[in-house]
Amino acid sequence: MLVGNKVDKESERVVSKKEGIDFAREYGCLFTECSAKTRDNVEQCFEELVLKILDTPSLLAEGSSGVKKNIFKQKPPQSDASSSGCCSW
């Protein structure tokens, strides 16, 4: 899951929402934005993640293996972007 933070500072935005969505889609991630300061959308981020894990049992199994994946050091998977499991708020 990719979460854009600090949406309460819209005037200081460096990455557009579209860029976040596109990046998440490229790596097959969920995407949402929130603000830890104002608590805007924070609870929904966790709820969406939990629902995705519950809907995809393999995510729970992979997460418990102790192996962490760093998407910033990996090449994106070669798949059709229209069939990726990405979603947006």
TrEMBL record:
SUPFAM superfamilies: P-loop containing nucleoside triphosphate hydrolases. SMART domains: RAB. Coiled coil: none annotated. Transmembrane segments: none annotated. Keywords: GTP-binding, Nucleotide-binding. InterPro entries: P-loop_NTPase, Rab, Small_GTPase. GO terms for molecular function: GTP binding; GTPase activity. GO terms for cellular component: endomembrane system. It holds the Pfam family Ras. Its main location: membrane. PROSITE patterns: RAB, RAS. It is found in: Endomembrane system. Residues 76-89 have a biased composition (Polar residues). It is a lipid-anchor. Residues 70-89 are annotated as: Disordered. The keyword GTP-binding applies. Belongs to the small GTPase superfamily. Rab family. This is Ras-related protein RABC1. It comes from Senna tora.
